[in-house]
Write a structure and sequence with these properties.
Layout (H helix, E strand, L loop, with lengths): L10 H10 L35 E5 L34 E4 L4 E4 L7 E2 L5 E5 L14 H14 L7 E8 L2 E6 L4 H9 L5 H4 L3 H10 L6 H12 L11 E8 L3 E6 L13 E5 L4 H9 L12 H9 L3 E3 L2 E10 L10 H10 L2 H9 L3 E3 L11 H4 L2 H4 L9 H10 L3 E3 L2 E3 L7 E7 L3 H17 L2 E7 L1 H10 L4 E7 L6 H10 L17 E4 L3 E4 H7 L7 H17 L3 E2 L1 E4 L2 E3 L4 E2 L18 H7 L4 E2 L1
Parallel strand pairs: 1-10, 16-17, 16-18
Antiparallel strand pairs: 2-3, 4-5, 5-7, 6-7, 8-9, 9-10, 11-23, 12-18, 12-21, 12-22, 13-22, 14-15, 19-20, 24-25
Amino acid sequence: MNNLIRRGTGEVSRRHLLQMAGLTAVGGAGLTACQGGSKAGAAKGSGGSAGGSTGVFQAAYPYDAPPKGNFNLLPGVSEAITMGYIYDLILLPGAMYYWDAQKYYYLLADPSSAVSADGATLTYKVRPGLKWSDGKPITAQDVYTTWTLEYILGNAAFTYVDKVTKTDNMTVTFHIKSPAPIAEYYLLRAQIVSDAVYGQFMADAEPMLTSLTPSDDTALVKLNQKISAFKPKTVTASGAFNFDMPKVSNASLTLVRNPNGYGIDKVKFDTVVVSNGVSDTDVMPLELSKKVDYATYGFTVADVKEFTSLGYRILRPPTYFGGALFINYTKRSEFADKRARQALAYALDRNKIGEAAEGESGKAVQLMTGMSDVVVPKWISAADQAKLNRYKLNLGKAAELLTAAGWKKSGGSWHTPQGRLAQYDVKAPSQDADLSANAQSVQSQLNSFGFKITVVEEDVTQLGVDLGNGKFDLAIWTWGSAGNPFPTAALQADVLTYNYPTTKPHRGMDFPLQQDTTSVGKIDFGTAIPDSGSGPNPDSLKAKITTLARAFNELLPIIPLYDRYGNNPVNTKNITGWPADDDPIYKNSIYADNFVTILMYDGTLKPA
């Protein structure tokens, strides 16, 4: 999401947190591709004549209007006028992913696309009959051009892919040098652009991909800059909508039906109006006046109560991340003993913290594995889950562990084994009301337990820098991964992103990556986390992920506090067709494979 570098509160700061926390980091595991997912149905159509009823879908999303933002929508271009899930309505990805069913929802790619049994080859077949908005057919050349340019832009897929071949007019073959199911996700999930628009760069780019020119090569860097500086005046679209250019402004923009677009025989809307809301505060007046039908902003508990009183339905999909307590092991070496960290987990009422931060959308972490509780059953057997410590609230157990680790309590206050008062600053991002409330709850609970905690709020950007530089005692920050559905990415965000050597030359939180455990023996997180995403198929990853989860559960490098669920208001008086709350479509992350796109393409959502 290229908008993440912007500042503000609510939506923008949250999206910035996701980027800074490494939630779209390389790694993880996917599953073999096939169609399926929501009870509501699955897309069947391709491009065709317009059909269905007419209507307007009102959205809100932060974007940069021209001249700052531009219409170079090639994935990875930082100044593009992109809008999260709305982007998929304009440019089709090969497929989206059903996070619960662990299957693909095919769009530009034909459902016959598949990874070989050994995981070394993805055969990407273009769905027949698709056209660009300029009337040209969509072919393998468009996919080949897109991925050639993605090599120049440094797409994470090339961590795994070392060769791209246009096999025939409708097929591209990717050779995966390091088989990993996540590679399939990267390759299918990216939006494809038109060769007619971007083919001008291929004469320079193709030889670099063929020879795997290093990313720091001078000629490649210059070509990267040239591609990024390209500013087309219009967008050649493949999705159901395209920009209405006269109606793009700083306040709002309008998307109109693309006559050649995918799924227009099913999509029930003629227009999508996107209000440019930089923060949840900006969007509130629009919500209150019923000018937004759906929004993913980080609304406060008070906001949600007001929405409910006005008749909005609140959707609460998991986001696969939440608030956690980070520790600086250099400055606060008393926490090097795992018993001290375990004591913190026992001393904190995670139910209260989640409620303070997110109301009904803040659910206490139960399994303490470093990944969202929602995904644990997909990767860890019931027998291994039974071995996990739930760290249920137990102040007596917390005191027992601290005492065993050499801490002493005197006059109602804890002192470290070094004899220092257990006095700490806890930094939290000032722009995020939920994480600020999280910090306040931690402060209250630990002070009652005998610590002396002071909350220090600072700008979200500065706090991200401070975490990497090791300039904190304790901090409230995000954990987990909203960017893709695979555990490796979550564990990377938890343990590696703000830790040495990733933060080199700084030490970050400086948690030693090589550890001895009673649960799984010796482990090196620095190699075990990246390796947990490697293998020919998903089943080959489960043992690796289970080992990491058990080690994390014992060692608690960070203390996960709550799983954040969405608090997304929908105006059911304007839009109908929203599935029931228990529909598995809502297991999709709103920040990666947002269900609204799927529900539009399969015709489930309709104007009231």
